[in-house]
Design goal:
With 204 residues, the chain is of the alpha+beta class. The chain has two domains: 7-124, no CATH class; 132-196, no CATH class. 30% of the residues lie in helices and 28% in strands. It is built from seven helices and nine strands, in the order βααβαββββααβββαα. It has helices at residues 16-22, 38-41, 50-59, 107-124, 132-142, 184-190, 193-196, and strands at residues 7-14, 44-48, 64-66, 69-77, 80-89, 92-101, 148-150, 163-167, 175-178. The strands form two sheets. It has a six-stranded mixed beta sheet. The longest helix is centred in the middle third of the chain and has 18 residues, at 107-124. It is globular. It starts with 6 loop residues before the first strand and ends in an 8-residue tail after the last helix.
Length: 204
């Protein structure tokens, strides 16, 4: 079983509209109805508000409830489902959504620990920071489906199935580029102003 790496996919606190959009960030993936694709979702997490957390708790009876977390009864794909967290971090009640692969019974606890570690690390720094991957994931999360997708048969075989995004500029009009290939300048232009100039974390 491939272990999912917990990763933050949205900066800030998602409102209800954005939360529902991000429940299926990969809706355009190839072979969407094949029952595969869990590797795209497993490990993704983002922060939500307390009202959104409570709303989801009341949508359906949870699959299970544990201290600081509950799991949705409906699975996204395979053994992957939504787990919602209510975690006090430095004395402040905060709420999160994450996709956990319940084939690993410890995955919810691993995700909770990863969330706490990342958020405490961020809060302890004098200046907020974002990794390059967090920047790319935030861009993917906030881009509408009309301007993001997956490389199809028109792309070189080695690139097919990878995430692509529409970019503008250069005097040639809109064009598509693989998300992972965006330059620092292209990343900066895609980010909201308040995130544009955050430094990358420095190694300890």
């Amino acid at each position: 079983m491939k272990l999912a790496v917990p990763r933050k996919v949205y900066q800030g606190v998602a409102d209800r509209r954005q939360m529902f959009r991000m429940f299926d960030r990969h809706a355009q993936r190839p072979n969407r109805w094949s029952g595969i694709g869990g590797d795209l979702y497993a490990g993704e997490w983002f922060e939500i508000g307390g009202a959104e957390h409570d709303y989801m708790l009341n949508v359906l009876p949870p699959l299970w409830m544990k201290p600081q977390m509950f799991a949705m009864r409906e699975f996204l794909t395979g053994s992957i489902t939504s787990v919602f967290f209510a975690i006090p971090i430095d004395g402040v009640a905060r709420h999160f959504h994450g996709y956990c692969d319940l084939a690993d019974p410890k995955s919810p606890e691993k995700m909770r620990n990863a969330i706490i570690e990342r958020e405490r690390e961020r809060e302890s720094r004098p200046i907020r920071s974002m990794t390059r991957q967090e920047r790319l994931e935030h861009i993917w999360s906030i881009t509408s489906d009309d301007y993001r997708g997956y490389a199809d048969a028109c792309w070189p075989e080695a690139q097919r199935g990878q995430r692509k995004i529409v970019i503008c500029g250069g005097g040639t009009g809109p064009s598509s580029k693989l998300l992972d290939d965006l330059t620092d300048c292209e990343i900066s232009s895609k980010l909201p102003v308040h995130l544009r100039y955050l430094p990358e974390p420095q190694a300890a």
